Amino acid sequence: MPVTDIRHDLDALTLTITAEFAAPVQRIWEIYADPRQLEKVWGPPEFPATVVDHDLAPGGRVTYYMTGPEGERHYGYWTVLAVEEPESFTYEDGFAHEDFSPNTDLPVSTCVSTFAAQGDGTLATYVTSFASREGLQTVLDMGVEEGSRTAIDQIDGLIA
């Protein structure tokens, strides 16, 4: 399994996930740059994602929904802040309403995804920062650690 570590820090207001992939950095980058590949790894297996809009460029927006086991949809968005292809991208990640407007009742986070060569593979580090302890705790209570682990672990299937 690619995920090697998940840590949350309620004082630093961060969630950090580390993963190792048996593929070069460019291949891992392509998964995030291609909406059809991103759909296969963004949600956990029981909540597959459908990407609606995908503009992975500074100022761009990615919108998606995840469909639950009983057909319910959970909407979200990214506002892309920075891109250094293929090494990293930074985005604001938020929950959304059906029309993809931000759901301000739930926390917004800033995510930095970085990819570095490690031997023949890639070391990926995903750092998510929250504005408040309550925001981080909300997503922890929603199961973000296990959901992220199972979602990221699906990348192995794409690179096999």
UniProtKB/TrEMBL annotation:
<protein>
    <submittedName>
        <fullName>Polyketide cyclase</fullName>
    </submittedName>
</protein>
<dbReference type="InterPro" id="IPR013538">
    <property type="entry name" value="ASHA1/2-like_C"/>
</dbReference>
<dbReference type="InterPro" id="IPR023393">
    <property type="entry name" value="START-like_dom_sf"/>
</dbReference>
<dbReference type="Pfam" id="PF08327">
    <property type="entry name" value="AHSA1"/>
</dbReference>
<comment type="similarity">
    <text>Belongs to the AHA1 family.</text>
</comment>
<feature type="domain" description="Activator of Hsp90 ATPase homologue 1/2-like C-terminal">
    <location>
        <begin position="23"/>
        <end position="158"/>
    </location>
</feature>
